[in-house]
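To illustrate the input format used throughout this study, we show a single complete record. The first block contains the structure-token representation of the backbone; no residue identities are included at this stage. The design step must infer an amino acid for every position from geometry alone.
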């Protein structure tokens, strides 16, 4: 991969976003209040977990609470956009001092412009204008290789929204995005709806001639990792919300960046939600993700001369020689020529070990939550969410009944189901002999060495 090409794509994304931002400011004034900065944030709830442990689901539940505001998705695209992280970095570890003053100010501006609240935004007479601009701001993060025109994006998005609202009894983000992507593809055919977090059956019904893609959405550089998020109309969090409400942050790479997070929010009380999941279920989910059309995180051409040689991945797909998926923990080089299951076990162990290490070192307030308690049924879900609300000083009664009964499916490679790891049991069960995995499994409550809970 050419570093110059990646820098060019980043510059184009920043320039387009700046054009959109200036138009928004001329219409609406400053994005988050005239004096707002990250130093105004007073409360941060940080979800830390290994990848494929359910953090996207937990975030989707908690961000519906009126006392919470959050980013639209993860922190990662904004780290990359502002040069605090790149594909050439040694690992996902970033020190507290990462970034120059100008980079950190730019990161803060991007965070502030994206912070939003779950209130119904459609009562605002300008909600359509703001929603269309939010979409314009997001597109270059998802498709940095596409030379977007602001007027073309606004027209396609405006026409799509009008058509969707005329045909649907109420706004549905999946339905709207299918309409939006159909219109955008007329001018930008590189945009592929299969890379969005939309069930494949819905994409196939709307785009019957479009084949399901394989490999990353471009072969050079990614800012946002697929599956790409779907934005919905949300009210922006102003300066008052920053001072009084709770900011919810979720990115699995933050396991390696807790010092950076604390430095970005110097006046905030940071509390940690440590989400765990059974090792075999999480490792199996990682394996599925590595073989999926999403979750590509880094092009490794800048790091490896000969590329990756991961059995079960690099030997199966041409892009598998260069693209790494999910987190890049320190020590990854030892696994660049391992079996896929071993790579995924290493990622699970590294993230959990790092969370436990930083919690011991910092003595931050932390609450451990089991993924299985959130997905196991209504009673256990209520109990788990009630404990989270008590820990974060939130009101549990604000949860909507339908959301509790039927949690959303987000960032899934397959429909949810119990013990999906059994399909790979021959490859996964031998991993349980690893002493490091045994120690982490025991520490997270999934069985003592030699006596694993095979749930």
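Output of the design step:
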């Amino acid at each position: 991969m050419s570093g110059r090409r990646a820098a060019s794509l980043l510059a184009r994304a920043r320039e387009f976003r700046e054009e959109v931002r200036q138009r928004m400011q001329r219409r609406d004034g400053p994005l988050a209040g005239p004096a707002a900065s990250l130093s105004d944030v007073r409360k941060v709830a940080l979800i830390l977990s290994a990848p494929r442990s359910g953090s996207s689901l937990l975030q989707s539940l908690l961000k519906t609470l009126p006392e919470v505001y959050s980013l639209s998705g993860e922190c990662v695209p904004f780290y990359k956009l502002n040069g605090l992280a790149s594909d050439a970095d040694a690992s996902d570890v970033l020190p507290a001092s990462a970034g120059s003053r100008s980079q950190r100010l730019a990161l803060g501006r991007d965070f502030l412009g994206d912070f939003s609240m779950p209130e119904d935004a459609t009562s605002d007479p300008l909600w359509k204008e703001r929603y269309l601009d939010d979409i314009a701001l997001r597109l270059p993060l998802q498709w940095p290789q596409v030379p977007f025109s602001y007027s073309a994006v606004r027209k396609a998005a405006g026409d799509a929204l009008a058509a969707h609202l005329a045909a649907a009894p109420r706004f549905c983000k999946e339905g709207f995005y299918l309409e939006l992507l159909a219109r955008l593809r007329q001018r930008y055919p590189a945009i592929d709806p299969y890379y969005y977090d939309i069930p494949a059956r819905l994409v196939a019904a709307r785009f019957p001639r479009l084949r399901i893609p394989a490999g990353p959405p471009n072969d050079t550089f990614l800012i946002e990792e697929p599956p790409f998020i779907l934005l919905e109309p949300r009210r922006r969090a102003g300066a008052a919300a920053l001072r009084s409400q709770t900011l919810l942050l979720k990115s699995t790479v933050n396991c390696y960046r807790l010092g950076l997070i604390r430095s970005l929010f110097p006046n905030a009380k940071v509390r940690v939600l440590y989400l765990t999941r059974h090792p075999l279920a999480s490792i199996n989910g990682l394996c599925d993700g590595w073989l999926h059309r999403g979750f590509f995180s880094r092009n490794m051409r800048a790091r490896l001369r000969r590329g990756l040689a991961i059995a079960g991945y690099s030997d199966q797909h041409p892009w598998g020689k260069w693209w790494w998926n999910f987190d890049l923990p320190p020590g990854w080089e030892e696994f660049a020529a391992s079996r896929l299951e071993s790579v995924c076990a290493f990622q699970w162990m590294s993230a959990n070990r790092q969370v436990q290490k930083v919690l011991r070192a910092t003595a931050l307030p932390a609450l451990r939550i089991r993924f299985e308690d959130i997905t196991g049924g209504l009673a256990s879900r209520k109990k788990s969410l009630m404990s989270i609300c008590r820990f974060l000083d939130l009101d549990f009664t604000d949860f909507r009944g339908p959301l509790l009964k039927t949690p959303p499916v987000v960032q899934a490679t397959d429909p949810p189901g119990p013990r999906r790891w059994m399909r790979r049991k021959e490859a996964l069960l031998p991993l349980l002999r690893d002493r490091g995995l045994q120690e982490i499994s025991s520490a997270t409550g999934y069985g003592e060495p030699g006596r694993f809970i095979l749930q």
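Structural context for interpreting the output: The mean pLDDT is 92. The CA atoms of residues 45 and 248 lie 5 Å apart.
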